[in-house]
User: What shape does this take?
Amino acid sequence: MQNVARLPQTTKVEAAKEIVQSLYSTEAALDAAMLEANRLMQTMLEARAEMALPATFGAEALTRVTATLGELGQARTELVSAHKELDELRLRLNLRTSMVGVMDKPAPGDGDGRPG
Assistant: This one.
């Protein structure tokens, strides 16, 4: 296996571009999942209220959706940490362009799953 630090600069830059694109895509997917889980919770609460059902009706399912939101939030935190670690790896590879600068991050609402 080749020493990654000895790869040609263009190869390292291309690899960094692919990683950054995947990172941004994953961030957008997590954000979209969090938004959908919030919509689900809102819809469940509104439906229960519209039908004048007791607060205990569907409470277990609501608790599970809430837990899902917490897990998605934790996943997002972990991904942010990975983003920081990838930036440190960029420095070890002697890539002077920042990870953000390698590729433009899509603007919110550009069909990337992030709110616009």
In short: The mean pLDDT is 84. Residues 109 and 115 are 5 Å apart (CA to CA).
